[in-house]
Amino acid sequence: MNVGTASAAPGERATGTLEVTDLPTGGAERLPVILARGEREGPTLWLTGGIHGNEVTGVAAVQDVLRGGVSASGGSPDEADGVPEGLRGTVVCVPMCNPAGIRRVERTSYYHDDDPNRHFPPAEGDATRRRVQELIDERLYEAVVDSADALLDVHTAQVGSVPFVIRDRVLHGERREEGDAEALAERLAALADATGIPVVTEYPAEEYADRNLHRSTAGAVLNEAGVPSLTVELGGHETIAEPHRAAGVAAAYRAMVHLGMLDAVPEGIEAAAPTLESPVAFPVRRFRGPNASAAGFCRPRLEPGAAFAEGDPLADVVSPHGEARETVAAPADGYVLGWPSPTTYENDPVASLAVRDDDGLVVPRS
Ligand SMILES: [Zn+2]
């Protein structure tokens, strides 16, 4: 088993790099790879982090999975040989999928300032027109789909946000029968439930396509390659949040158990990150909003993780002098995932919410 220059025989852990493009100044852009191969055959689980360069908790979580779950400051790496005991199959970790973004601790890369998580799979048409970030993404995508039986792509949402796992809807149409889409959606739901982190279904199909999310890492590996893939959101930007890092590591181990790669989650990993329950008992989807009609400064009334009912006040938009201008109300039952920046222009969405979702998990591709 090898990914880039990382090559492991059964029972071995290996590190190496996946070269994704040459640099004009010499050398190459390389994505670090850590992989561990069990003594016995089994599925291949991929873990990716850092496609958004400021989402550093995801980087740390993916770095630590094959160090026995310990953080650089939180234990002795010598205690773990890096191959989870009794592993069947292979775990591939790529913690820094956007090195140019990570160098600047910014969401985008400096190759071009668009979202590096929207170029999967490669665009159809003339390959000579693809710019460097698209080529980097294409080479990563090809490496993932070459061997992955499942993928967790690890991100962060907002400062102070609660951890959640995003499950995309499965599209059917020309390239996939509805029955196959239903089977894939079922496998995806089971993997999501296994992570021990509350599950939030992605935006409705039209908004999903408008936001180009079918071309995100997890969206493309799921909807194009047909491999169960989830986006894991672990708290805020630019700083490593320890409980969220531990939750990400535990989610990876729970996925291994679910996929039949391990018999149980190691005790220390389970103890560091107990299973998190959803604040509500009904299925939810992501919702960015509601929108403020007035410009101002948004002052939340609820903490991330707090449940609300339709019509409940969520936040106040205040004037520069701190006087109330508008109270924004919940559009449906749900709970708060997190709060984006309080700086609010007219018609800006003020909250990141999980709201009741009764729509299907399988939808026709338009
Ligand atoms: Zn992200």
Describe this protein with a few key phrases:
2 domains, binds zinc ion, Aminopeptidase, 4-stranded antiparallel β-sheet, alpha/beta, OB fold (Dihydrolipoamide Acetyltransferase, E2P), 8-stranded mixed β-sheet, 23% helix
Describe this entry's structure for a reader.
The structure is a single chain. By secondary structure, the protein is α/β, with parallel strands linked by helices. The chain has eight helices and 20 strands. The chain folds into two domains: 271 residues, Aminopeptidase; 81 residues, RNA polymerase II/Efflux pump adaptor protein, barrel-sandwich hybrid domain (OB fold (Dihydrolipoamide Acetyltransferase, E2P)). The strands form five sheets. The protein has an eight-stranded mixed β-sheet with strand order 3-4-6-5-7-11-8-10, with helices on both faces. It has a four-stranded antiparallel β-sheet with strand order 12-19-17-14, with no helix packed on it. Helix 1 packs across helix 7 and helix 4 crosses helix 7. The longest helix is centred in the middle third of the chain and has 17 residues. It is globular, with a radius of gyration of 20 Å. The two termini are 38 Å apart. The site of zinc ion has 3 residues, from loops. The site of zinc ion (ZN) has 3 residues, from loops.
Total individual domains: 2
Number of strands: 20
Rg is 20 Å
Following the backbone from N to C, one meets helices and strands in this order, namely EEEEEHEHHEEEHEHHEHHEEEEEEEEE
Mean pLDDT: 94
Strand neighbour order, sheet with most strands: 3-4-6-5-7-11-8-10
Tally of alpha and pi helices: 8
* Percent of residues in helices: 10-25%
Beta-strand percentage range: 25-35%
CATH level 3 topology of the largest domain: Aminopeptidase
CATH homologous group name of the largest domain = Zn peptidases
Broad structural category: alpha/beta
- The low-pLDDT segments are none
